[in-house]
Design goal:
Number of helices: 12
CATH architecture: Alpha-Beta Barrel
Order of helices and strands: HEHEHEHEHHEHEHHHEEHH
CATH class: Alpha Beta
Strand order of the largest sheet: 6-5-4-3-2-1-7-8
Largest sheet: 8 strands, mixed
CATH superfamily: Aldolase class I
Low-confidence stretches: none
Shape: globular
Amino acid sequence: MNRFLEKLKEAKASVNRLETTTLQLNITKTCNQACRHCHVESSPIRTEKMSREVLNQILVLLDHSPEVQTVDITGGAPELHSDFRWFVAELRKRDLQVIDRCNLTILFEPGQEDTAEFLAAHQVQVVASLPCYSSKNVDYQRGKGVFGKSINALKKLNELGYGKPQSELELYLVYNHIGANLPPSQSKLEEDYRKKLFEDFEIQFTGLFTITNVPIKRFLFDLKRQNKYEEYMQLLIDNFNFKAFEGVMCRNLVSIDYQGRIYDCDFNQMLELSVPRANRTIWDIESFSVLSGEKILFNDHCFACTAGAGSSCTGATA
């Protein structure tokens, strides 16, 4: 039984996709980190990445999809893809908003020393992982020394104008906890982050996103190892919020994997739950507009996006 669909039926909610305004691309699973909560299971030993052929076909579809306004680039560490800069430049030529999901430490990897300057020059919005404002918690979750490098990266972005008041260079931080519980209030946590990061390091940022951990991949393994999976799932189900559902990202976002296959969201992608009409790829459609109105593939992991204040790639939804 699909418990999530049963909830939607109770709420008489639509299960159909709206107009696609955001395209999210997982362009590589290669990463310089191997975080405990990572649903992509990225690491330095992963080699999967989008080919130039796939990237070019995406550009063709975007040229025929005027409703798409934003391209959200993720990984892995997307900056490690050899075509990252070429692709970003092509997107900006088309006047599309580009988001780079950045783990911050990548800015100090060999060959990435001028990546921050590149992002600023192309006015790329940076969404940066910083699961806490304390070194102990960050280093536990993401690896020893990550907090110090992350702070230095944020200082560098600030120096370029990112996150400053009235600046067009937007810098968002992402809070990902590792426990089997819901994140705290996004607005309250943002206040805490602003106060602590400015007092300790004079760091500024545009906003904060809280994201609920989805019980799949590495996080699911941790939950089962601790015998907390059923407890966590019940917490998510008990806190189902219809208002949060109305703002979930799969309503107007399409996710593409490195092979060009189409999914409703990044989480479905990792579970290989492709959109209807089995295994549809970017070569099977003429534009992203043809996906509007189609049914979204929901399952029990979707409770993570609709519990409490909700969760999406842009934080709380309710």
